[in-house]
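Write out this protein's structure.
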Amino acid sequence: MQKFVLSVSLSLFVSCTVSSCSVSSDALQGNTSNNPASHDRLNRPSKISKLSFKRTGGFAAIPIDGSVEFSDRGAQVTSGARYTRVLSPDEIRTLEGVTDPAELPTLRSKLGTAAYAGSDQYVYEIKVVMQDGNAYSASFPEQPLETLDKLVPGLGKLAGWIGRECQKIQDHNQNVK
């Protein structure tokens, strides 16, 4: 696994990770047309297996993290041992189709130095792991959702969902104490 790190400013850290995937020897030799199953597998986009997220910063500086595990039976979000929630079918469809995870590594070059995070801004870290083993990560400061959508189509919608879920986790944790 290669890890690319770019430090844009003292208060913004952007990290992108891309894992390699395996390809059959037939595909390497260009013989995928003889094997329809292989051809279909190589051209079909992989589904999301796991979405991990973390929100740091903010006025109270309380870090919140969670993950969504996807399966054939549905998906559920968890945070620590105290928060678990089953996602609705509409939420699952939204998260699976909101953005192309392979676009996340492009965020680091599109943000620029003007997007630095202030001391009271949230910073989000997300990692998407696909069923084929590919993983894509990005870190970014809180931005207007429209701005994120312009940088990486669908990222604003994903960031909005993550922000709302982090708030649900924080509210739940405060009520459980």
